[in-house]
Design brief:
mainly alpha; 8 helices; about 70% helix
Length: about 240
C-alpha cells in the first residue's frame, strides 16, 4: 500500500511519468520545437490531397448524373453520388485507422515519423506516439464526416441506396487512402516506410501500393455497376 501511494504521488507530480507530454519537459521540447509546424503540415498533406480527390470525384459524378437526367428525362434514376461519396469518405477514415492499428501498433513496423525521429529512445518513441495520436485524431474526424454524410441520406428520397455503392465506396476510399498516403509519406516525404527495419524497405512500399491499386480498381468497378446508365437503359429496352 505504501509503495502504491508513493507511485501515485510521483505520478501526480510528474516525476516518474517519462512519457507524459504534459509533465515531461524533455519530451515537450522534442515535440514543440521548430519542427512542430512543419511536421504537422507534412503529416496532414495526405488528408488535404484526399479531400481534393473526393471533391473532384463527387463533382464529376454529380455532373454525369445531371447530364443523364437531362438527356433522358423519361427515365427515373436515383442519385448514386451521395451514398458513394459518403462511403468513400468513411473508407478513407477506416483505411487510416487500419493503417495505424495494424502497422503502427500491432506489428509496430513503423510509426508516423520513424524515418525522421528514430524510436530507439524513450523520447523518440514518445514523439512518434504523439504524432500517431494526431494522425488517429484526423482519421476520427474523417470517419465522423462520413457518418454525418450517411446520416443526412436518411432524409432524402432521391438517393440510390444500393449495397454495391456502399461496399464499393468503402473499398475505393480505403484504397485511395493507402495509395495517396503511400505515395506522399513513403515515396515523396519519406516520413516512414511500411516496414522500417528491413534490408530493402522499398519492396514492402511497392507491395503496399500494388494492393492499394487493386482495392481502388475493385471498388471503382463495384460502384460502376450501379452507375452504368447505358447498361441500365439497355436492360430496360430489352425488358420492353
Amino acid at each position: 500500500m505504501k509503495q502504491f501511494c508513493i507511485l501515485l504521488f510521483s505520478f501526480l507530480i510528474g516525476k516518474t511519468s517519462t512519457a507524459c507530454t504534459t509533465c515531461n519537459r524533455p519530451l515537450q521540447e522534442a515535440i514543440y520545437n521548430s519542427t512542430f509546424v512543419p511536421n504537422l503540415v507534412v503529416m496532414l498533406t495526405a488528408f488535404f490531397v484526399l479531400a481534393i480527390i473526393v471533391v473532384i470525384l463527387a463533382r464529376l459524378s454529380t455532373k454525369k448524373h445531371h447530364q443523364h437526367l437531362t438527356q433522358y428525362p423519361q427515365h427515373k434514376h436515383l442519385n448514386p453520388v451521395p451514398l458513394a461519396t459518403a462511403s468513400m469518405v468513411l473508407g478513407i477514415g477506416m483505411g487510416g485507422f487500419m493503417d495505424g492499428i495494424w502497422f503502427h501498433q500491432i506489428l509496430q513496423w513503423h510509426e508516423m515519423l520513424s524515418n525522421k525521429v528514430p524510436v530507439d529512445t524513450v523520447i523518440g518513441k514518445s514523439v512518434n506516439m504523439f504524432w500517431d495520436g494526431i494522425f488517429h485524431f484526423f482519421c476520427l474526424m474523417v470517419v465522423l464526416t462520413g457518418l454525418i454524410l450517411l446520416w443526412k441520406l436518411l432524409f432524402r428520397t432521391d438517393v440510390n441506396r444500393s449495397k454495391n455503392l456502399f461496399i464499393g465506396g468503402l473499398l475505393l476510399g480505403w484504397g485511395l487512402f493507402n495509395c495517396v498516403e503511400g505515395i506522399i509519406d513513403h515515396q515523396i516525404l519519406k516520413l516512414h516506410f511500411v516496414k522500417q527495419v528491413s534490408p530493402n524497405p522499398e519492396i514492402a512500399n511497392w507491395l503496399f501500393l500494388g494492393i492499394s491499386l487493386l482495392m481502388i480498381l475493385l471498388g471503382a468497378a463495384t460502384v460502376y455497376t450501379r452507375t452504368n446508365y447505358e447498361g441500365d437503359l439497355t436492360r430496360h429496352h430489352n425488358a420492353l
